[in-house]
Amino acid sequence: MEHSSTVRVSYLGKVYEFEGRLRAEKVLQKLNLNPEEVLVIQGNRLVPPDELVEGEIEIRPVISGG
Prior knowledge:
Elements: E1 6-11, E2 14-19, E3 22-23, H1 24-30, E4 38-42, E5 45-46, E6 52-53, E7 55-61
Parallel strand pairs: 1-7
Antiparallel strand pairs: 1-2, 3-6, 4-5, 4-7
């Protein structure tokens, strides 16, 4: 039996689910987010845009100050 993967994404208090393993950049595209304005985090680790993700990830806005 084949097991299908799911990516569960938390962003600004909402949860989104996508079927299959996706690259982090593809998740951002699906949510219409600019990769320069957010961080993709899995556990305590920053996920690069070209990495395949599955399971739970969190997207956080980049905060910059001046």
